[in-house]
Design brief:
Length: 201
């Protein structure tokens, strides 16, 4: 879906218009969450995926120095991300279930709004943990089955078309992350969006 030309072009507008109204969280909140994850990298390499059009990462990188690797499977999304981020991040086309990075390559990882889209959430979580160094920090946002009635109805419609995974609970997501090897340090629910943090022991 995300490689269709019009989807990448409309994505930024959709995020800006619907984040607060539909999902119960703001773009500014998501930027702050991503910026904190990046800062936790303490100058080490940071992994961002899926980067989408780079909208959130662009704002979160305001004071960042050091290597940031932005990953997405959609070439259309990556083209927009590369134009937006320029030389501030290395944009890489890759599948989250088969990341082309060595074990322990990253000091921190931010995954914004991806786990409700990833076909295999367990494989995605396992790869994030594999590429995160010991003591590394993970910050993940994803949709849940909570929030406004219209948001839940929209999710069910997308799931019926096979565009996202069936909505699940915050506890189910937490179980996925912990089963992959992360230790929960925080979890907050803002409307539909779960904002989860953890570390790799």
């Amino acid at each position: 879906m995300y490689d269709r030309p019009f989807v990448a072009a409309l994505y930024d507008l959709d995020v800006r218009l619907t984040s607060r109204m539909l999902w119960g969280t703001s773009v500014a909140d998501q930027v702050r969450f991503a910026a904190d994850a990046i800062a936790r990298g303490e100058g080490g390499p940071v992994l961002e995926l899926p980067t989408g059009t780079g909208l959130i990462l662009d704002a979160a990188l305001a004071r960042r120095t050091g290597l940031v690797v932005a990953v997405d499977l959609s070439r259309a999304m990556l083209r927009r991300s590369r134009r937006r981020l320029s030389d501030r991040a290395a944009c890489v086309e890759a599948d989250v279930a088969h990341l082309p990075f060595r074990d322990g390559a990253f000091a921190s990882v931010h995954s914004g709004n991806g786990f409700h889209v990833f076909p295999d959430r367990n494989a995605a979580a396992t790869e994030l943990v594999r590429t995160l160094r010991r003591g590394g920090f993970a910050a993940i946002t994803t949709w849940t089955d909570q929030g406004r009635r219209v948001a839940r109805a929209y999710q069910r419609a997308l799931a019926r078309r096979g565009l996202i995974n069936p909505p699940t609970t915050a506890a189910d997501h937490t179980w996925t992350f912990e089963a992959a090897g992360l230790v929960t340090t925080g979890a907050t629910q803002g409307g539909t969006l779960l904002s989860w943090t953890g570390t790799k022991p």
